[in-house]
Amino acid sequence: MWRRIDVAFDLGLDELHSVLQVVFGWEDYHLYRFTTGPQNDPGAAFVCTADLAEGFDDDLAMPTWDVRVDELLAEPGERLHYQYDYGDGWQVSLAVEDIVDGRVPPGRATLVEGDGAGPPEDCGGIHGYRLIVAASDPAHPDHRQALAEVAELWGDEVAPRDLGLVAFDPAAIDARLQALDLAASAPTPARIGGRLATLLLRVREPDTDRRLRALASSAGVEVDLDEATAARMVRPFTVLLATVGDGVKLTGAGYLPPAVVQTIFDELDLGEEWIGKGNREDLTVPVLELRETAQQLKLLRKYKGKLVPTTRGRELAVDPIGLWWHLAAALPFGGRDAAVPEWQASVLLLALMASGSTDNAEVEIAKLLIGLGWAVGDGQPIDRRTVTGLIATDVRLLRRLGAFERDRRHDRWPGAVTDGGMTLARAALAAERP
Fold it and tell me: What is the CATH T-level fold of the domain 2-118+166-188, as seen in this structure?
């Protein structure tokens, strides 16, 4: 059996897997992978999510949703091997016959021609397939023997037509390819950042997988940062670092002295958002949160009763672009462990910001968290109120950096993402975790 197909160059390998499932008549019941190199001595491996999530493969294996067809098959004659159902051991060799620049097939994948019925799922591999083919074809030279073997294996009452041989039907294949709706899927980005990749490895629900892939495509846009934007966004930290200078003696209770608090309060115009004199750190939460965040970012530290800049803090105090990237790499800030809901919810917030749309962010994040397997208490679905608590730490920091438009209406919380916020989110999703 063989198939000739025409596919778009920017399909992800996971989408190519879906196409191969259709053209051979399989039902996507089993694990799969693609490999380079000779079939009996494979090189690089590109494996399905279940392989990675269960740790079946070594650290060098890459997920199929992170690789495009044109990254591996760029010239006529190049080959790629597809393995499906490791028990039955199906191996399909893919060879490039021609590349046509600028032409994308209808639906991004079409059947050109082929021959031979497709093998049923769980038929016992190549031997079982050949047996069923022979038993199903009265003209086959081994038909009689095959019928006897089928009866021995599955019983006299089982007819060959009941064994699930998938007749080669171009019209039916075309209909199933169209049903994949590949034209509506998001392009596979060149690389998915580690934060979103962590979530994609946890997905077991198709709609959530598709939505995360679409968000990953938005996040894959190259970051374009200018110094003015960086300086404007990191100003709360540069004001704090400049005010602390070479070091500030803390009060007996461990707080910044009133004069320092007042300077920071006035420099950042915090009177618009906080009621009070702004000279006591324990009563001026915006200043307290800013100082504690700077410590967590290792820009400041306590030393012998004083708050002093770290070596890194001194360097970044006069380097707004470097400080901006330092902040991006530290996001998400709430929940430092990728296994906790705070971290995952905040990564989803960054993904929505990177896409340019944070409308109904809490509702969208709640749906995605449910798709990632999270629930509340005794299994109740996550709601927007829960999400608000999960992302609150990151929203406060991102608002301080000007990543959201100021909007005091509750139905607009956290607010529309700014251009700078969109850029920061894309950088955070692309950055390696510090």
Answer: 3.10.290
User: Residue 27 — φ and ψ, nearest 5°?
Assistant: -120, 15
| Residue 254 Rama label (left phi>0; alpha psi -120 to 50; beta) | left
- Rounded Cα distance between 414 and 357, Å, is 11
Secondary structure (3-state) at 209 = helix
DSSP class per residue in 95-139: E-----TT---GGGEEEEEEESPBPPTTS-HHHHHHHHHHHH-TT
Q: Is the pTM of this model over 0.90?
A: no
Q: How confident is the model over 221-276, as pLDDT tens digits?
A: 778 899 999 999 999 999 999 999 999 999 999 999 999 999 999 999 999 889 88
Domain ranges of the chain: 2-118+166-188, 227-326, 331-430
The Cα 81–Cα 242 span in angstroms is 59
> Two tokens at 348?
């989803």
In the CATH scheme, what is the code of domain 227-326?
Answer: 1.10.10.10
